[in-house]
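Reagents: none. Just compute today. Alkyl hydroperoxide reductase subunit F.
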Amino acid sequence: PFDVLIVGGGPAGAAAAVYAARKGIRTGIASERFGGQVLDTLGIENFVSIKETEGPKFALALEEHVRHYDVDIMNLQRAKALKAGELIEVELESGASLKAKSVVITTGARWRKLGVPGEEQYRNKGVAYCPHCDGPLFKGKRVAVVGGGNSGVEAAIDLAGIVAHVTLIEFGEQLRADAVLQQKLATLPNVTTVLNAQTTEVTGDGQRVNGLVYKDRASGEEQRVELEGVFVQIGLVPNTEWLKGSVDLSRHGEIVVDAKGQTSIPGVFAAGDATTVPFKQIIIAAGEGAKAALGAFDYLIRS
Ligand code: FAD
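Predicted 3D structure written out:
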């Protein structure tokens, strides 16, 4: 069996692998797609010490760093269940099953998509999901934020300080964000809020986004907004469906962890976007991954 088995090969998993391997213990990492969300990222400018890089390049660097150590890397493996016992067992879709004394879960998350024409075509060409990451690319431009929950309203407030104008589009009749956020939003002169509006299309000139079309759900009329960017903020979904019934999950499906990354099952740790730890960023996921691996090591030497 592995001493530490990591499930997920994003920044959190890679950091956990490096930290575990450096303890000289038997370490494995199984993941569907090594690199994780970083593979879908164009530019990264907020991983301190690396002024500027590209997602695929960063993903390759993660894998190279892990390969430098004696780590059993199992790519293209999707976990489908976790069973606690004397040893912890992770079942894979392939039918195989891996056993370990401790497990670090780092299966990350995915942004919920609008599912409208233009969204996929203009992804990274005006369509964005992360205001902390891509906000500065829209300096002085016009953008829309789709989604009026906490993350949408936070994004609108954040972006209003950078871009020329923000149109906040909410499907329902009211914003769903906390009152304090709504009050702050109302004080901003360069934000227009549109309620009861269903986004139906992201338009572009073939190269980049040039507008967004929504349907006024009361009148049924279509409206077009001219802009350069669309931030989709309708939810970040943790990749934890496979854990239902094993570790404790929050109401949003995030793995509940303590300060050492320990889950509700002894010996099972978790880190990164899949967990309750706030602010989903590469540097945070990597730090949490390191922490969870140290948590697992701490567990191993005590048991
Ligand atoms: P992920 O990166 O999501 O990795 C999850 C890993 O688990 C992957 O290897 C995946 O294949 C694997 N996996 C999932 N389910 C299973 C399963 N059942 N079995 C086995 N393996 C599984 N953050 C920044 O800090 N700066 C940026 O500029 C930035 N830009 C971004 C741009 C985009 C378009 C996106 C989508 C995100 C961006 N982020 C950025 C956020 C950042 O990518 C994430 O916070 C970070 O990747 C989270 O790392 P993670 O290791 O927790 O999870």
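The radius of gyration is 21 Å.
Action item: order primers for follow-up constructs.
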